[in-house]
Write a structure and sequence with these properties.
alpha+beta; globular; binds adenosine-5'-diphosphate; binds magnesium ion; magnesium; EC 6.3.2.3; glutathione binding; glutathione biosynthesis
Length: 496
């Protein structure tokens, strides 16, 4: 330490601490594991009794991200929130979905059917989006390029904050330095605010929900949040952190329930189909989905029916199907066309800023763009990733695998996919990943996510916020970055 107490160890741009692998194993990993277990940076580990947790996979060091890139992503979030909110209210979305439903009847088609049958009938006019826009930093320009815009069940708002705290703790403890001094200076390590900002978003939607107090059965505060969840969710604690903070900060109670048990525990009131929790007789103000984005989440017809039951209810849905479907990959592709995005973004500067984050995305239909995409992918497949209308990881086809995959598929089904240019991002060599107590040190690629929350109706936005950040890192050798699925890990940012 120097006389001001600041670390003397100046960090060069983009540098990692230079501690040895054996030091990491003997000095850092035990501290990292104990801190994670003690502070809830954990996933479930099933002993059958809910009595065991395991340390979530994380990096050992925070990963360097250009401060400018983060600031740019943060700045754009409210505009992206607003854009997707407007799309969810648009006729254009319905027209696009009509076509998409025809080429993907199994999933988009079924969701769209529920949207027409139930969502449109709900008497609730307030809509609520909890979004996350994901980016990679482009190697050449060092600016952000959008991977995808998520409008349903965005994960890690809880654990993201925790991993930032973990890295700050290890730094303050002197574990990133052989002499025991802090390696990073104040303000260089970013701790995501998502754990409180996403909760704040949910609280503002809850605040707008008006309980039916007319017959004096309930008072204005008699409302809860319903978390619709998967059974045996390995990312349980990320969700519990949201639940605990809702209660601690805002006095809002939550109930967790999988699709299959919803109708046992919840019923409609006679007036406006308010959703009543039978046990407590409280109204559900917000339905918060942490499932329902993947075909596998709808295990039988009753799961689909239950989604419709929730959609038609008076509760505010996070998200309803119009918002969820606005996040379809096909919509993301269409928005890269200036003629489309211009319909929703008036401000030419904002439009330019948003468009600068887009890489080329082709449809694979009979349009001239579509034909161009078809030609390019056969000639230079290594430049592309092929994406179906699915969420949640494990569905994309990468690079050299694309031509063979497409050739096996009847041509009329190609329309259900989009073809996206691979974002050329710099890999980081010097970081380490700890997963299940084991250290690996291959080059990693990091994906930056920015959370956003927006509460709105047809004509008015009542709240629109940046809601924190997430950094996920994966081994460069893996195409996908799913943390829970075992491809990647949670990380935090050293901003330079
Ligand atoms: P999902 O909805 O399954 O999360 P994504 O579009 O986020 O699908 O793709 C999954 C992963 O594939 C991303 O997290 C990223 O690691 C990689 N990926 C997707 N698109 C690109 C791209 N254009 N360039 C490079 N990597 C990509
Ligand atoms: Mg993704």
């Amino acid at each position: 330490m120097n006389i001001t107490g600041a670390a003397t160890n100046k960090v060069q741009h983009g540098e990692f601490p230079s501690v040895s692998k054996s030091f990491i194993e003997s000095e850092i990993i035990p501290e990292l594991q104990q801190w994670s277990l003690c502070n809830g940076l954990v996933l479930t580990s099933n002993d059958g009794n809910g009595n065991v947790a395991k340390v979530a996979p994380t990096t050992v060091f925070p990963t360097p991200i250009p401060r400018k890139a983060f600031e740019q992503a943060k700045l754009l979030q409210k505009s992206f929130n607003q854009l997707y909110a407007q799309i969810s209210n648009s006729e254009w979305l319905v027209e696009e979905l009509e076509q998409l439903a025809a080429v993907d009847p199994e999933f988009t088609g079924k969701l769209f059917k529920l949207f027409k049958e139930y969502t449109l009938k709900s008497k609730q006019t307030t809509k609520f989006g909890i979004f996350r826009s994901d980016y990679l930093v482009d190697r050449k320009s060092q600016s952000i390029k959008q991977v995808e815009f998520n409008t349903v069940s965005v994960s890690f708002p809880g654990l993201s904050s925790k991993v930032g705290e973990l890295h700050s703790f290890l730094n303050a403890m002197g574990k990133y330095d052989n002499k025991g001094d802090p390696f990073y200076q104040a303000g260089e390590l970013h701790v995501s605010e998502s754990i409180v900002f996403v909760v704040r978003g949910i609280a503002s939607a809850m605040n707008l929900y008006q309980v039916d107090t007319s017959n004096k059965v309930r008072e204005q505060d008699d409302k809860i949040v319903l978390f619709v969840v998967e059974e045996n969710e390995s990312n349980l604690y990320d969700q519990k952190l949201i639940e605990y903070n809702l209660l601690k900060i805002y006095g809002i109670n939550s109930v967790r329930c999988p699709f299959k048990d919803i109708k046992t525990h919840f019923e409609y009131s006679t007036e406006n189909k308010r959703l009543i929790h039978k046990t407590t007789n409280r109204e559900v103000g917000v339905v918060y989905y942490r499932t329902g984005y993947d075909l596998a989440d709808y295990i039988d017809t009753s799961a689909w029916e239950t989604r419709g039951f929730l959609e038609e209810s008076y509760a505010i849905k996070a998200p309803d199907l119009s918002i969820q479907l606005a996040g379809a990959k096909k919509i993301q592709q269409s928005l890269t066309r200036e003629s489309i995005i211009s319909k929703y973004v008036d401000d030419s500067i904002v439009k330019k800023q948003l468009m600068e984050t887009f890489v080329k995305i082709y449809p694979l239909d009979d349009s001239s763009e579509g034909l161009k995409g078809q030609k390019l992918v056969m000639e230079t497949p290594e430049n592309y990733v092929l994406k179906p209308q699915r969420e949640g990881g494990g569905h994309n086809v990468y690079k050299k695998d694309i031509p063979e995959f497409l050739n096996k598929l009847p041509k009329e089904q190609w329309k259900a996919y989009i073809l996206m240019e691979i974002i050329d991002t710099a890999s980081r060599k010097e970081n380490y990943i700890v997963r299940d107590g084991k250290l690996s040190s291959e080059p990693i690629i990091s994906e930056l996510g920015i959370y956003g929350t927006i509460v709105f109706d047809k004509n008015h936005i009542s709240k629109n916020d940046y809601s924190g950040s997430l950094l996920r890192s994966k081994l460069m050798t893996s195409n996908e970055g799913g943390v829970v699925a075992g491809y990647g890990c949670i990380d935090s940012m050293y901003l330079f």
